[in-house]
Write a structure and sequence with these properties.
Elements (H helix, E strand, L loop, with lengths): L5 H9 L1 E6 L12 H4 L4 H5 L12 H11 L3 E7 L26 H11 L3 E7 L7 H4 L1 H18 L5 E5 L11 H11 L4 E5 L15 E5 L17 E7 L16 H13 L3 E7 L8 H17 L7 E2 L3 E2 L6 E4 L4 E6 L16 E7 L7 E4 L8 E4 L2 E7 L9 E7 L1
Parallel strand pairs: 1-2, 1-8, 2-3, 3-4, 4-5, 6-7, 7-8
Antiparallel strand pairs: 9-11, 10-13, 11-12, 12-17, 13-16, 14-17, 15-16
Helix pairs in contact: 4-10, 7-8
Keywords: Glycosidase, Hydrolase, Signal
Function: Alpha-L-fucosidase is responsible for hydrolyzing the alpha-1,6-linked fucose joined to the reducing-end N-acetylglucosamine of the carbohydrate moieties of glycoproteins.
InterPro entries: FUC_metazoa-typ, GH, Glyco_hydro_29, Glyco_hydro_29_N
Length: 411
């Protein structure tokens, strides 16, 4: 397999990102597709710009909370399928943030703050647009409109970590003139990642040589398509929402369990993919309380185990039969991810409490010096026999359950 380009390796080292959906739809509190799915009159929908104040949008607060979550990059919707730009579209359209009640360039605030705090800013751009009539009446003119909107972002906002496109799946047989679109990015932002969401039916598909990462929207693949041996190495990215919508939906209380979120983060790294955890901002631009709490929970896990997430990569090491456990390697240390441990305690207090859980791995050839939990540095006893390792994986200390526990192996 080919060696990744520097920008792609650096992207894989980011590991965990925060996805943010925000637009006019957020004011209606029923998901990002509400205009389309609920058949809202276009003229009526456009008037939402008159009440889009963004009064609670504080890029500083959001970026700091993302950093505390352990995210190394943030993808923000600069324009969703509704066609509304969160930035100054420089005369391309009046349907933008500077012509709304906000009268601010919200993308500039976001990018500047990300760069201030060493978080990579990524910009989502919808290619499918149900607001601009050119999308249906003169597709070539629409594509130039799209290219110019990306050129504005590429030229005027300083370093951009990447561009995240979404919507080509709506006209899957059309000529999207991707060479011109991606060429514009390469001209002004040569180190920016180019990602194009291939949709639910084409997860992992490489649609152009300039693509740097393939997507697996709402999918949990067993492997990543890194491209053929004679092609450029391509990264992979999974994404998941906390509930069932990407944009803020007040009446959607069907939230995923923290276990599912943490296990998805671990699974993504096990297959060598990055992962985006999505939140939707409220109509005024704040993070909903429940989303803040989820971000804190992820942050707690990352605070204890983050060193095993960012730069570590998949290995050929295998766990015992029927176990979800796996191992990552960062070039120096090995990290063992252990699932389904119990809490150590009196059996009358902690149901199923167990002190020691033998776990085995095969494929480890180097002599091991030490194994310890990342969360509390407790040293673990182990037996190494040829390429087989068995550790005594102690359960969580009473008062703790981090769902997946990580042990650091030093050689």
């Amino acid at each position: 397999m080919n060696v990744p380009l520097k920008r792609i390796k650096n992207y894989e080292d980011l590991g965990l990102g925060l996805f943010i959906h925000w637009g006019l739809y957020s004011q209606l509190e029923q998901g990002e597709w509400t205009e389309f799915i609920h058949g809202i009159d276009k003229t009526k929908y456009e008037k939402l710009a008159d009440t889009f104040t963004a009064k609670n949008f504080d890029a500083e607060k959001i970026v700091k909370q993302a950093k505390n979550m352990g995210a190394k990059y943030i993808v923000l919707t600069s324009k969703h399928h509704e066609g509304f730009f969160l930035y100054d579209s420089k005369g391309l359209s009046n349907f933008d943030a500077v012509h709304s009640a906000a009268k601010r360039d919200l993308i500039k605030e976001f990018v500047d703050t990300c760069n201030k705090y060493d978080i990579k800013p990524f910009l989502y751009m919808a290619t499918y647009d149900w607001h601009n009539p050119l999308y249906e009446t003169d597709f070539n003119k629409y594509l130039e409109y799209l290219r110019k909107s990306v050129e504005i972002l590429s030229k005027n906002y300083g370093p951009i970590g990447g561009f995240w496109f979404d919507g080509n799946w709506n006209k899957k047989d059309a000529d999207w003139k991707l060479d011109e679109l991606y060429g514009t990015i390469r001209k002004y932002q040569p180190e920016a990642m180019i990602i194009n969401n291939t949709g639910l039916k084409n997860r992992g598909k490489i649609i152009n040589p300039e693509i740097d990462a393939v997507t697996y929207e709402r999918g949990t693949p067993d492997s990543i398509n890194h491209g053929d041996a004679d092609q450029k190495y391509v990264a992979g990215e999974m994404s998941l929402t906390l509930n069932q919508h990407w944009g803020y939906a007040k009446a959607d209380i069907n939230f995923k369990s923290p276990r599912e979120i943490i296990e998805n983060i671990c699974h993504a790294r096990n297959i060598g993919a990055n992962i985006l955890v999505n939140i939707g901002l409220t109509g005024t631009g704040s993070i909903p309380t429940i989303s803040k709490e989820y971000m804190k929970m992820i942050g707690l896990w990352m605070q204890n185990n983050g060193q095993a997430i960012y730069k570590a990569r998949p290995t050929e090491i295998k766990p015992g039969d029927g176990l979800k456990d796996f191992a990552l390697f960062d070039g120096k240390n090995l990290y063992l991810f252990i699932f389904n441990l119990k809490i150590v305690g009196n059996s009358n207090v902690v149901l199923g409490g167990e002190g020691i859980n033998p776990r085995s791995f095969t494929g480890i050839s180097h002599n091991i010096k030490n194994i310890s939990w990342l969360d509390n540095q407790e040293e673990l006893s182990f037996i190494q026999n040829n390429d087989m390792l068995t550790i005594n994986a102690t359960g969580f200390k009473y008062g703790t359950d981090l769902i997946v526990r990580v042990a650091k192996v030093e050689f």
